Input
Amino acid sequence: MKWARIKSILNQIMGHCYFSNRRLKHYLKKNKVEMSSPREYLIGQYQAVFKRMPNLDEPRSYNEKLLWIKLNYHNDSYKILTDKIAVKDYLERLGLGSYVIPTYGVYDSPDLIDYSLLPDSFVIKVNNDSGGVVLVNDKNTINHSKINSFLASSLKRNYFQLFGEWNYNFNGRVIVEKLISPKPLNDYKFLCFSGKVEYMYVASDRQNFLKFNFYKRDFTPIKVIQGHPRSHALISKPKSFDLMIQIAELIASKFPHIRVDFYEVEGQLYLGELTFFHMGGMYPFYPKQFDIKLGSLLDLTMYNKE
Output
């Protein structure tokens, strides 16, 4: 098989088109799309990734509808649930405090962290980023300068400017939490529509090469790829799976669409992120028909009723 063909297949599987800033910049420059026009920029971004114009008059696919929501709907309460600090109080008020990962400290800048006051192990991340996490198993062996530099870079990352996710448009801070496991955990992510879990996926093998495995509501595996390859390792149904669904639907009951994430450690359930724009709405699905399937579940008329 020729290398060009291999590369094409890998690009489809891994969703590299999403990360191709060169391709995006070339498209925007060629079509004279200005960064100062958020609508045209996001439409241009969509076209660069999916290689077609979105139908925003009658959107059908899931990713088209997420783009429509970015451009046509705003709700400041979404910022609270996106903020990894503020969301904890929200979850406490819902009676879900026992599933919230304990916080050790909150800081306006990485330079303000007093490591001497922290326990030997912990997790550091910023409240307005996605995926940028530092696991500290022994604080006596870490490079403070390196960690602070990483956190400073994470604080500068702006998902509002990059992908139009207006719910990330708030001031970033650093949060230090309890380390619930010394190694990366499986991340159980539930896609909820109109208050009901319809599909979910498991993000695994973060320490090596991130993989996504999609499932129906009852944990029946389905052959869907988005952004990352599927794992061929056996992934067991979590012990607290039914409770995950129950909690996800409690949170989702107030929103037309949301993704609710969980971790499980020796039977103990913990809540992860809450997400309104899954994968930024900029990752293709394979097969493409699954994008249409998810789109049929996302009722845009509900966004005028909140």
The CA atoms of residues 163 and 289 lie 23 Å apart. The radius of gyration is 20 Å. The first helix runs from residue 3 to 14.
